[in-house]
Write a structure and sequence with these properties.
The chain is mainly beta and 79 residues long. Helix content is 0%, strand content 28%. The chain has a domain of 49 residues. The N and C termini lie far apart (44 Å).
Length: 79
């Protein structure tokens, strides 16, 4: 059975997927002391943020996860 987005097509034994508890849900990004990005509902493992200018200092503040006490960040690639 193929599963579609409409509720009438979801099987009885279908369980929705959960986001990993270790994934960062809420974070802020600061460039030279100015907040340039923030989110409270992240569900992506890879987040790309375009800064669009040269900066001397970049700060990322991880505020909340999807349930785990500590945030598990494996890499921050900056280019």
């Amino acid at each position: 059975m193929q599963i579609f987005a409409a509720k009438c097509n979801i099987g009885r034994d279908f369980e929705p997927m959960k986001v990993a508890e270790t994934l960062v849900k809420s974070f802020e990004v600061f460039a030279d002391g100015e907040k340039i990005f923030s989110t409270n509902e992240n569900h992506l493992a890879l987040v790309k943020i375009r800064i669009g200018r040269n900066v001397k200092e970049l700060k990322i503040v991880f505020k909340e996860t999807h349930g785990c006490r500590t945030a598990h960040v494996f890499s921050c690639d900056i280019s």
